[in-house]
Design a protein that fits this description.
4 copies of one chain form a homotetramer. Chain A is built from 8 helices and 18 strands. By secondary structure, chain A is of the alpha+beta class. In chain A, the strands form 6 sheets. Chain A has a 5-stranded antiparallel beta sheet, with helices on one face. Chain A has a 5-stranded antiparallel beta sheet with strand order 9-8-10-16-11. Chain A has a two-stranded antiparallel sheet with strand order 5-6. In chain A, strand 17 and strand 18 form a beta hairpin. In chain A, helix 1 packs across helix 8, helix 3 packs across helix 8 and helix 6 runs antiparallel to helix 8. Strand 11 of chain A pairs antiparallel with strand 11 of chain B, so a sheet runs across the interface.
Chain lengths: 350, 350, 350, 350
């Protein structure tokens, strides 16, 4: 049944498969008057695109976003905005050997169990290719938030066990890992190279930081801002965990440590991560997502075929060694989409 | 705007405030033919109820659930089931001193910023009292899942830094902390007492384990089973993080370590936590939620009043020292509600 | 699946069966600050109640509305408002003879085909009893609309072929048929009595007139104000048609006749019925609903039993002779609910 | 806010404006395994297309439907289906004179009041152009219904006061008016020509007849099959009324006349129009929609400009003289979309 939409007031519906004509999104609920052109998508799409670093998969579509509707003379008019990103580099051949075997760690097995088939041509709807549509939608979300000074940054807090010790947002887009700490960039690169040489892969942690968010966004019960951020972030394939503010660390704090004292000029600390009772408190919203190591590895793996018989799978070809850098703009997009939805909800009558 | 419902096919809407006539839920989408009586709610409601242990708040409503509709001759008929739980022990007086001050760590401040008022009588809609309605709805969810052998267990994995080393489900309901490891129950009690004596509070980690779930539940894009579980769990007040399977630990694993080998008899390991690509894989679904220390502490705290002037707040009265044990049945309920929703969705035509 | 809610921003969920404990509604999305007490429901509930005229069914619950949540110190607080109306006069006995036979014109047959059973105790969820919850929700909707001068009137335009020639809103509540033309009230009564003596029933037309509605309510595509009014009105059991403005008459007009000329002081005519392109134009919104004759008649009817064998059914007991007067407040409520939903939607950011 | 979607399980979202790049739809919830190619849309799109008869507007895009996703090797795969229809013949010039004046009977005035602007280039989102996307979506709906023998016919029951006396479905597509009665086709043509020569326009009535629908589709309360059909049909621009079965005629029948007797072989009559209590009864579903005369006429009309000053408007160019024939495939599509939605809902677990 219908399950490809997200959001209530700012609502996106994505479509497209990894090996079809392309992927896209319809954004329903974008306010009128937002300047928007196809060029606005270029930089963010480039950040998600594979082929940026030597260790990435060389599949390298330009990922040009076409606007089919909702914009007139460079400005949104309040009607649905349809975006389309054509697939370019579709070679189904390399995947043909996978027609029979389930790749461990991928959705092949569960897809097959659910639908009686799976899309051996690269994951179909479960493919990370779908997230290109989210990044495009996220660009629009960020264009809505920019004039009200809500800004979203995302970066690689940790990859392969190497953790950024300082957060310098200016550094993020000056290295291929979107790492905010220049001091550890080389170490990240080494860990990545080592894993790649071993035919293995690595995971990491992405942090998203939202500044300028006014107090009052989010609903007190099910549609807590934190709950919708959790759903949005966890709906991205490789994410296995999300925490806000002190997160799992809060489990070991005392109340006297974890409570953020309130002063006339703001909160003294931010263990809350900017959200109290599901509603933004005006402080920075900080969340972290755990990214699992990419399941496509070059090492032989134990698996079964469609008939349930044991098999060994050794993937060939070239794959990303970590999903982490490319997932950074995706999580940024999802955070922006959730924020806009709640921002627009907060602008209703009450 | 309307934001008090959760679920698509099995849809719950909760209502009620902490100090009004009561709280309740309407469950829309419960299949017919499920045996249901008011007695079915007793044991689960008792688990959520305050006043179970010497260190809990003594507010102790019986929390009797009334069924107003949807059941005829002891069996559901497929129509909406309205449940109501009357508030009994409502004394607004102790909270009157809070009329002016925001309690740090509570939703008072954000509520005030959002609505221009806050319910000083115990949190209003943001109160944990609302979760009584969720527990009641969760009982029905579990009654739907039981015949198909999907069973949900929840327990205190960690409290105040004391972690269960063994998971013995039989032990869970034999101690007041719902701890699955008898060997650490006393230590948990000590930590809790010590915090209480200091006027402080402690947090912890709740683990939910779902057994018997068939492969195929969950949708591949936004409505991943993991994403809906994340939203459901994170929509509970004190939760600051959620992880599935290896969770944040996966961020430091290699692909060769994290991938669960597949054999004809099942997965060799369960780093996935029972969910691949957002769809259940037939293995146990395992999730953990980080619970922050309860913000109501007896120690003096820095805060501000409604006019933004600095103030010191020292709460009096008796409060829970940890939300952890009481939140166990709430998270169990939320997991059950999400599971039923996806279970029923999986039973549609395709 | 979940199908008992209506509205997007002002969302009502009804529950309850004709012969259970009662019926009710949860209203999610009512703005805060609306004065509301249980007394506010009395007059409108009385209008829907049976037993008002000698020819009505004597089942006469007081239909007292209880407020369970969402109101504090006489004012709504923005949280869900749960309303409950207990069933009082439940005698299942008279209907026992219907356990086997489908009543022509009722939902017995279709209910049975859909669910494998039907509620012989008076229609269950299909019973007109459910509309009591809608009337209660409509009272709240009207309390929101009143301060902004949007007013809704509903009346019997025609019953048993007798049509009101003049619309005098002051007359409506001074006769038991809610007829706006005192000159035809007696004739309506005669037709009704005659039908009743014959053991037969009659239909009619209810007109709803909304004054004071500003231009701009409604969405241009699917959620046209007209489309939502159509759904709301047609979702009431006995309604078999709805038209807006010139309605079916417009099918025989020329464009030069049907177009409403626009002048600086407003529209010269109102063939549009106050809605153009699905959006309110500031003129009175006028709609008419066709009400079928009540299917419960005292004359012998041809039918079948559950096993499909032919049978003759002769109902005994006392039933309404026409649904028309009692349906007037129900359609008024549905119109108010639709209007509030769109009114609140129009108050969002854009 | 998001308001461009329709349906719950089979959910369509349309996008596109009359003078942008094109219009389209995303269908979310189409089951897998339905054969589908771009050629499948040709005949139905041709029926909606202008320029079929001498009296129609000569704007004549080929209206080729492109499939962007959801189909693999000629068969749907269960993922969202994105359809796109490029606008071809976009000349904004003729409408430039309308930049200042509101066309009576059109949405210009209400659009302006709602959004502060209106799309003088042909109605924008309110344009009938948007219905091309609905017709395309309806083709898919009908492909789902065909194998289960649910068939939908639509035809011009009446135009300009000329009414079909016999319903011969074979005749419908053999005349440009989609009139099911060959005996009145010429008369319809004469009325149409006469109106056109006078610079005027005419309305009519479209009837939709659904055969083969099993009993049991529709929900008992708000989501009655009749209510959803009413919304779907009324959401089409020119529709001012809808009735089911005896419709407004039922208002003047007695219960003894209107009730359809039930026999072992079916209903003796069909005043119910195939729907009882909102649920299909297995008989033909019959509905009629009142179509207003097209508001674009060549005669001078009284109106105002954007500043509210009186003006006279005399349209030039060529317009359809009646919306009736072209609306026939649109209403057929909407009926199909509603039917599929409820058909799929009826296939869920209960």
């Amino acid at each position: 049944m219908a399950a490809n939409s997200f959001g209530k007031v700012f609502r996106i519906t994505t479509f497209g498969e990894s090996h079809g004509k392309g992927v896209g999104a319809v954004i329903d609920g974008c306010p009128p008057g937002i300047p928007l052109s196809e060029d606005d998508f270029v930089s963010e799409m480039a950040r998600r695109r594979p082929g940026r670093t030597p260790v990435d998969t060389p599949r390298s579509e330009p990922d040009r976003v076409e606007i089919f509707s909702g914009v007139f003379e460079g400005v949104t008019v309040g009607t649905p905005i349809a975006l389309f990103i054509r697939n370019q580099d579709v070679k189904s051949a390399p995947y043909e050997i996978l027609r029979r075997l389930f790749r461990p760690g991928h959705a092949d097995y569960t897809y097959f169990k659910k639908y009686g088939h799976f899309d051996f041509r690269g994951g179909g709807r479960s493919s990370a290719r779908e997230t290109a549509a989210r990044v495009a939608a996220g660009v629009i979300a960020q264009k809505i938030l920019a004039p009200v000074e809500i800004r979203i940054a995302a970066y690689t807090l940790e990859m392969g066990g190497i953790r950024a010790e300082h957060i310098d947002l200016d550094a993020v887009h000056k290295n291929p890992f979107y790492c905010p700490d220049v001091a550890v960039v080389d170490k990240m690169g080494e860990v990545l190279s080592r894993a790649r040489e071993a035919g293995d892969s690595i995971g990491g942690i992405v942090e998203v930081r939202i500044t300028g968010c006014p107090a009052g966004l989010g609903e007190p019960v099910f549609d807590k801002l934190s709950a919708d951020l959790a759903k949005g972030v966890m709906s991205v394939g490789a994410v296995k965990g999300i925490e806000i503010g002190a997160g799992f660390g809060a489990a070991r704090l005392k109340g006297s440590q974890n409570n953020d004292p309130i002063t006339p000029t703001g909160f003294v600390t931010n263990h809350a991560g900017g959200i109290l009772g599901g509603i933004s408190n005006g402080d920075d919203i900080v969340l972290r997502a755990a990214i699992k190591p990419i399941p496509s590895i070059m090492m032989a793996q134990e698996t079964i075929d469609r008939e349930g018989r044991p098999a060994r799978l050794k993937l060939e070809g070239r794959f990303d060694t970590s999903a982490v850098p490319r997932i950074v703009p995706v999580l940024k997009a999802m955070a922006a989409i959730v924020l806009v939805d709640h921002y627009l909800r907060s602008k209703s009558l009450w």
